[in-house]
Design a protein that fits this description.
The complex is a heterodimer of chains A (about 350) and B (about 290). By secondary structure, chain A is mainly alpha-helical. Chain A contains 14 helices and two strands, in the order H-H-H-H-H-H-E-H-H-H-H-E-H-H-H-H. Chain B has about 290 residues and is an all-alpha fold. Chain B has a domain of about 200 residues. In chain B, about 75% of the residues lie in helices and about 0% in strands. The chains are: A mainly alpha (about 350), B mainly alpha (about 290). At the A-B interface, helix 5, helix 10, helix 11 and helix 13 of A face helix 4, helix 9 and helix 11 of B.
Chain lengths: ~350, ~290
Amino acid sequence: MAAEAGADSIDLGRPGRRSRWATLRKHLAWTVVGGLALYLLTISVDPYRNLQIATIAYTAIAAAGLTVLTGSSGQISLGQGAFMAVGAYTTALLLIHREDWPLGVVLIVSTLFTAVAGALVGAAAARLRGPYLAGATLAFAVGLPALADYRGLREQLGGGNGLSVATKPPPLRLGETFPLERWQAWICGLCLVLTLLLLANLQSGRIGRHMRAVRDDEVAASLAGVSVARTQILAFVISAACAGLAGGLLAFVNSLAAPGAFQLTVSFQLLAVVVIGGLGSLAGAVYGSILLVLLPGWSADLAQQLDLSRDIYANLPLALYGVVLVAVILGFPAGLQGALVRLARLLRGPSRPPTITGR
Amino acid sequence: MSRFVDLTLAGTANGMVYAALALSLVLIWRSTRVVNFAQGGMAMITTFIAYSIVHRGGSYWLALLVAVLAGLLIGAVAERVLIRPVENKPPLNAVIVTLGLLVFLQALAGMIYGGTPRSFSPAFDIRGYQAGDRRLLFSPADLFTVLAVLVVMAGLAVLFRRSALGLRMRAAAFAPEVARLLGVRVARTLTIGWALAAAVGALAGILVAPSTFVGPNQFDATLVFGFTAAVIGGLDSPLGAVVGGLLLGLALSYLSGYAGSNVVTLGALVVLIAVLMVRPAGLFGSTGERRV
């Protein structure tokens, strides 16, 4: 899906009407292909795999938002997991207190609410750079989950155990035996495909160009008439909205919103996904999410064969993310997607000098 | 009133620990312009080393010594292997590398010690001093914390102000090119700076461990507090780190006492944002303000 989004080059000039339509057509084609592939996959695999597909889909939504923020706009955020918590708790509260609302409305409201939270944090963050921003969002990510146990909110938010919500069954017209997991995979897959379509268009459009201009040189961008603060806040809002949707889907799939699901590690994992996939690449965010969700299972299988203890295999994926974060930055700054793009160019022949995208 | 006194005393002891961690962040920021997000993880590993020694029957002082030495080593290795390649690259690269190291160290600790936090006993009594007929919220262990951090700060001040090595380090941080021309081995001073910083962080870890326990993620909040304290002080001023640590320790102690302990980290976030809004260079910082 939107595999070309990683190959962006900075071009502040306006593309002609024809090329804009060509880009949109290409994105729509990828959306249809991706949606169809997901549909075929969900009807051919068992419920457990469908649950994994749903998990991959909402992880990829959160990662895609982060890749727009960190890759395109150049702002590093460790708060993506905390924004997911905002979306998840909003969805859980709505599912509990507004039982008659359709799921779509609940998810949209959760996304919008998280976007507002993102605007607040983004307005503060627009003044912060690099390590300062990382530190502030780190405080946000460490501090927010503890709020669930704050004495004024414990009643509403369920404290350390979180809020469990009734499972939303698939609509009856799909048949009474329609598996729940396939329904969840459909909802999450649909949200993922739509999110990627929106983000791909956004990245190849004016807003995306503004973000990359601000990322590469703030002074030059503002001289060219780009509002630096507004662009950075907008990037924050977009990434928070994605995290809110992802969190809402997480609460829907797991029927639970609990602080344990949004510890700092979640934000680190999402950052690892984005860095592995190549900063700024939406396709990379999707591969990275697939790896993130499948890796713990592989690690457990490996541990069983080698007879390792639980402590070892439970932490093996995390250790790998740490090593990969360092190795990618030191060795392959363009990530997996960058490596694939470079490989494709090598196979196609040296038609133009290779450029490394992302940072 | 007595509650206020108690919170002030407790805040002072906590603030000194934040000051120590802030100091280790400041030492690194001064020399390499990197915020070491792995500092919490490095301190966590060295504290686990100390825990193992105490657990096997070693004395507290041996454990402290070994932890500080391990900190020196880890800091030097981290600088040589991980940070040197990202010098003069966009700041995002260094941030991600230190975060990667943090994630790796947390996973490593989880593999060796499991996820359950372990208790870590302090060197001195944790029952508060008796004042008249009531106990203060300030114990001999707290006094040791305050004194230990003060001694380290005095030592660093002497090192930077009075010794040739300190002069070289300040020169390398202030103007690396000129220092290199004048014969300072800049790369080596950067490594020494990282080693010293990690050793100070190791001390902070041991001092904070009795109250937070030792576990892979136990120092996350402590790192946030250390970072906030460093930013209050201006990120490149050692004196600022100490004042920032004390101010933050007091503020968070009052917040925890009057509003509840679950809002303390978010309180630190509010302090952090407020300081960056009003005085982006901190109280003692020298970096120019950036506006957007």
